[in-house]
Amino acid sequence: MSPSATVWLIDVFLWHRGRRYISGCDTHTLLVSRYIHCWFESEHEEEMYRNISGLILSSVMSGLICEAADWRFYGLDESDLDKVFRLPTTTFIGGSESALPLKEIIRRLEMAYCQHIGVEFMFINDLEQCQWIRQKFETPGVMQFTLEEKRTLLARMVRSTRFEEFLQKKWSAEKRFGLEGCESLIPALKTIIDKSSENGVENVIMGMPHRGRLNVLANVIRKELEQIFCQFDSKLEAADEGSGDVKYHLGMYHRRINRVTDRNITLSLMANPSHLEAVDPVVQGKTKAEQFYCGDNDGNRVMSILLHGDAAFAGQGIVYETFHLSDLPSYTTHGTIHVVANNQIGFTTDPRMARSSPYPTDVARVVNAPIFHVNADDPEAVIYVCKVAAEWRATFHKDVVVDLVCYRRMGHNEMDEPMFTQPLMYKQIKKQKPVLQKYAEKLIAEGAVSRQEYEEEIAKYDKICEEAYNRSKDEKILHIKHWLDSPWPGFFTLDGQPKSMSCPSTGLTEENLNHIGVVASSVPVEDFTIHGGLSRILKSRAEMVRNRTVDWALGEYMAFGSLLKEGIHIRLSGQDVERGTFSHRHHVLHDQNVDKRTCIPMNHLSPDQAPYTVCNSSLSEYGVLGFELGFAMASPNALILWEAQFGDFHNTAQCIIDQFICPGQAKWVRQNGIVLLLPHGMEGMGPEHSSARPERFLQMCNDDPDVMPDFAVRQLYDCNWIVVNCSNPGNYFHVLRRQILLPYRKPLIVFTPKSLLRHPEARSSFDEMLPGTHFQRLIPEEGMAAERPEEVKRLIFCTGKVYYELTKERKTRGMDGTVAIARIEQLSPFPFDQVKAESDRFANADLVWCQEEHKNQGYYDYVKPRIRTTTQRAKPVWYAGRDPAAAPATGNKKAHLVELRRFLDTAFNLDAFKDQQ
């Protein structure tokens, strides 16, 4: 046989790789890749050719190469089957034997790779890992189960199957997104948890779409059945605040004994919206946080399991983003087990229309995760694969994928008719014998169980369901809190009583400010060479500290440092956050002479401080923001911040904002204190680097524009999130500290500046940060106009950077005594009381809202009705700003300056608004 024949043979096999079978395992491709590897490791050419010949014979006998049906073409005859071949060191098919006849080699390889399990691992570039996998699947007799294991598996299959049948019987007209066709998912998950518990895992955090969620809640998390069943009662009243969510989106937190290992284990199933894979990074973030807080640096005690649908796994980009976080130092969870419920269809779309890759799991190959395909109608094969997956994760702390190749017996939901779009497939599915029936018949035939025992197991679980159903009728009120996936025990009470709705002063002592300032302006490591430009920055900081002032970077440093000294962990994540996109932060110093040697001064504040984590992220917004959101769920006693490189870029994380951050508490009674830092400002940098789209955040605020609220702290408690645009670093300092000192947690959206980072007037004195000071929701006029308020003709309300442009223009025009300017620092919840006080103070003044954003963007539509509510709509609220536009900013510098001049003229022209009438 010539080398050219070898090349031709490989080409044939690679061509075959494109073929897919309904089993989803395509095992001949895996067998071929396995052999090719052995050939190239062979030391002797003759042995290599004999192995090739054996492969051809094996392939022909297995019916895998129809094009090469006449194997005699290769000079082989039947006598070759009895020849004994020495086995290469890369295979484990021989067990304790080093040589086998060819026909036995073929038989053992077929048993390993051509049954109900297909293994993809040859792309892994680590010999130890490849050999580990080979040993698990090639060693003869590895897939053996004890009688007790088989009976346990049958009992779990009964629970999985009968749960769905019970729901279908009781609520046939209700959506539940049942698990029919993939019932082996439940024993699969329980096996992963059992094996992981055996390996020392104490906490498992899970995320999944709606398919089979109720079954997982019932039979894996072990939520009370009556709590699940009562959700189907249309007359159930809502007791908790908020909107709630549909039952197959809700999560659960439960600590219980694992009956297989007799060890305590905590299980969390994270709530998830219909954006199927959006929960993936959230789970990873919460897992990372739990590992961090318990000191689990290797993921031995806390792990994550992610469940996926085949179409979503291939189609959702967040899957790829999450995979690429898996091995990054500040984001790794040390291995996630991914389970794909591969039912061959996404809603009504065939795989040929849903993906370009051969398998839905191919995305996992980018991180060298092994992929185990298994026929879900073979429960024992499923269980074995899941054991191997759990062992892989415990051994190598890397991701692994279990692809349950199954089908969907119903339509997308129980009301859907799948025959509309997949008639031939569903004709076959209707003929398919349910997996429980097939497995029970197998065990009965083996004598592992009797038919009576099997029927008794069914009757026992049916009785459990009926009793729970009867108890569920007593439930009259729905408590979403029972479905909380991330509880914070002890946080909402103090000495057994609910916390006060007050917020203490967020100021610091002069000594504390000085101490943090000294650390911020120094290098607390010996023999550490920093960049010359950075030396100048640190000297400038030291000078500011001596002068008792702070700029934006130093104000942030003061807030972070003080919280760290108070024991609050801080995590700042995002693209380029260590230095800061605008080279202002420099929280990580780099030695200019030693590669990878860094220093974080903020971790040198005091011996008993909390740790500070600052980490540059991958170039991802969706995945990283989801991760940080999950991290913030784990504990309320931490400040978790995500900074966008530019505020504009949050739009690629919009799903996390819309589905989790904005309505999270309303849907899932789950508070979260995550902070979003979004650089924003119209500075002639074009439409992609100007606007953080404040109008989107304000549109989603839940405060009523027509109702004056009671008091400010209660206002914060009732809102869904807090939106601020601070105009000075002192107020930024206070709002960050307030985020932790409040007696509850709300997401905080901060429109951070760009040009103000170095603006000479955007400075704050230590006096504004001392004990007794607070965050100012509105900064009133304090200049000449405040001395004679009755002479003021115009009161301009504004927010953020435009304040400095307005004050400069006012001074240029000599109108300091006739035009007052007030800064609304907290936009939502709106400071009705302080806006009213300022309006009453300048009773003779026209009211103007001035913004640098376009009229159909920014804040105007949000603030106008609220300002009018404070004045009982006695006065109009005039607008000064850019005209409506489709793009958020112009890309032409000259046009930008013309627009700026135009709206400043409008803001100070007393006759401009008469023209508007």
TrEMBL record:
GO biological process annotation, one example: glycolytic process
Keyword presence, Metal-binding: yes
Domain of life of the organism encoding this protein: Eukaryota
SUPFAM superfamilies: Thiamin diphosphate-binding fold (THDP-binding)
Claim: Magnesium is one of the keywords in the record: yes
GO molecular function, one term: oxoglutarate dehydrogenase (succinyl-transferring) activity
Main location: mitochondrion
Localization of this protein: Mitochondrion; Nucleus
Pfam assignment, any one: Transket_pyr
Family per record: Belongs to the alpha-ketoglutarate dehydrogenase family.
PANTHER family recorded: 2-OXOGLUTARATE DEHYDROGENASE, 2-OXOGLUTARATE DEHYDROGENASE COMPLEX COMPONENT E1
Name recorded for this polypeptide: 2-oxoglutarate dehydrogenase complex component E1
Native organism: Sander lucioperca
Taxon lineage: Eukaryota, Metazoa, Chordata, Craniata, Vertebrata
